[in-house]
Every structure is written in C-alpha cells, then in structure tokens.
Amino acid sequence: LFPPPSFSTFSFWPSLFLAGFLGLHIADSFVRSQKNHTLIFTKESIIRNCSCLADIHDCDYNLANLMCNCRTVLPSTMEKTNYNSDLTIWFTDTSVLEMLLNFTRVCDLKLSFCGTAPLPTEYLTIWGLRKLRVKNKVKGQFPEQSVTISSSSNNEKEDYLAMHNKDRQMLVYISFLDTSLFNGYSLLKSYSVENVSSITEYFPSLLYSDVFSTSDNKSYVVTFIY
Ligand SMILES: *[C@@H]1O[C@H](CO)[C@@H](O)[C@H](O)[C@H]1NC(C)=O
Ligand SMILES: *[C@@H]1O[C@H](CO)[C@@H](O)[C@H](O)[C@H]1NC(C)=O
Ligand SMILES: *[C@@H]1O[C@H](CO)[C@@H](O)[C@H](O)[C@H]1NC(C)=O
Ligand SMILES: *[C@@H]1O[C@H](CO)[C@@H](O)[C@H](O)[C@H]1NC(C)=O
Q1: Could you tell which of 49, 68, 98 is best to mutate to test the pocket of ligand 1, judged by most ligand atoms within 8 Å of the CB?
Q2: 104 in ligand 2 pocket by Cβ < 6 Å?
Q3: Predicted confidence band at 12 (pLDDT cuts at 50, 70, 90)?
Q4: Which atom of ligand 4 is nearest to the CA of 217?
Q5: pTM score, two decimals?
Q6: Ligand closest in space to the Cα of 166
Q7: Which of 65, 92, 187, 200 is the most exposed place for a label (fewest CB within 10 A)?
Q8: N- to C-terminal Cα distance for the chain?
C-alpha cells in the first residue's frame, strides 16, 4: 500500500532550501549579536554604562555586570550625549532618566522600569526618536509595548534626498514622553503632529517651549507619548 521512501527530487529540494534558510538565519543572528549595545542602568544611586554583546534580561543587574563591559559613571562628570545607535536604560526613578535623556538625541530607545514606586507625571524631551520600546518590571497587563514614529512625507528614500538636497526643509523629530506611562495604568499611546514649522506657535501652552528656536527653517514632527 505504501511505497518505500525513495530519494526523489521532491524530498531532496525542500531540505536543501531548509538548510539554506537556516544557514542564512544563523549567519544573520551571528552578525547581529556581534553588535555592541549600550545599556545604562542605575542601582542605589550608582550609574553603570555598559557595552553588551548579548541581550540581557531586563533589570538583571548582576548578569549585566557579568556579561557586559561596564563602567561606573559619576553623576557629577556626566555629560548629555547623543546616541547614534540603540540605547537601553534600566531605571528606578525619573531623576536619573532626566539626567540621561532629557533633551538628548536617541533614535532607537528601550526603557525598562525596574522600580516599584509609582512615577509622577513629568515630561522628557527626546530629539530624533523613531523607535521606542517600553517595559515594566511589574508583570501587569502590558508587558512590552512599542511605538514607531514616522512621517507621511518621509520614507527612507526621502531621508536620503533630504540629506543630499540642501534646498529641502530639514525634518526634525521631537518627542515628549510622559513618565507616568511606566505605571502601566493603560496602554501606551502616541500622537504625532506633522509639518510643524514652529513649536512655540503650534503649542503655545507647552511648558518651556522657549527652548525651541523659532527662527530656523525646519519642519518638526512632534510626538506625544503617554
Ligand atoms: C556611555 O558609553 C558610551 C560609549 O560606550 C558613550 O558614548 C556615552 O556617552 C556614555 N554615556 C554616559 C551617560 O556616560
Ligand atoms: C526635562 O527638562 C524640562 C525643562 O528643563 C523640565 O521641565 C522637565 O521636568 C524635565 N523632565 C524630567 C523628567 O525631569
Ligand atoms: C506634510 O507635508 C507633506 C509634504 O509637504 C505632505 O505630503 C503631507 O501630507 C503633510 N502631512 C500632514 C499631516 O499635513
Ligand atoms: C529655507 O528652506 C527653503 C527651501 O527649503 C530655502 O529656499 C531657503 O533658503 C531656506 N531659508 C533659510 C533661511 O535657510
């Protein structure tokens, strides 16, 4: 009734494809895992800045100290930095976040809240944010959530053109993040306003809007994350 299995092209090709697929996949994850990730975490007023090859489970301070190349950063000598690659921060209170992030430039950010005390509503201003991942240690209803920010007038090709064509208006991304979102009371939400030529004019009631210059020739994408 059942013919004996035979070596046919039909059984041979799928396994060849599978092997090829796995090979590519392994090569791909190998290349990706070789990339250094910046992880900054704070524990009992100590700030550690680490370079990690692997993804470390959120808030596992011991493992991070063991697996990553970390150094202690003194708050007094800390300077606001712009992060060109991805940045992960584990934090327990907003004061450290404000020191590390307020008015800095980060494109790809992952924030993990490792504390338990509820956070107040304060606003962080982040330049250039395109991708945000948020994680709460409290195993509530919302484990990991993310927001990706893009503009309708902007895709990768346009990004390229914008960089190489000085006549175009410069697209500037700016995000305001409500720190109480880490309390996990509701789902992460975001709202973007595009084509904003002047932040002060569009959002006159925004606190400290005076820090944004009005005389420049830029088109802002303003995003509120809450
Ligand atoms: C953390 O280290 C990276 C380099 O690994 C550096 O660019 C960045 O400025 C440091 N951040 C702080 C807050 O020290
Ligand atoms: C960020 O800076 C602004 C302006 O100085 C300030 O009003 C705001 O409270 C800061 N954000 C946080 C989370 O401290
Ligand atoms: C913003 O401007 C671009 C091009 O000028 C246009 O394509 C896009 O629809 C505008 N977006 C909004 C939300 O008005
Ligand atoms: C503003 O941008 C327009 C076109 O994008 C350009 O023609 C103009 O010269 C720029 N103005 C200033 C002051 O940079």
Answers
A1: 49
A2: no
A3: very low
A4: 1
A5: 0.78
A6: 4
A7: 187
A8: 65
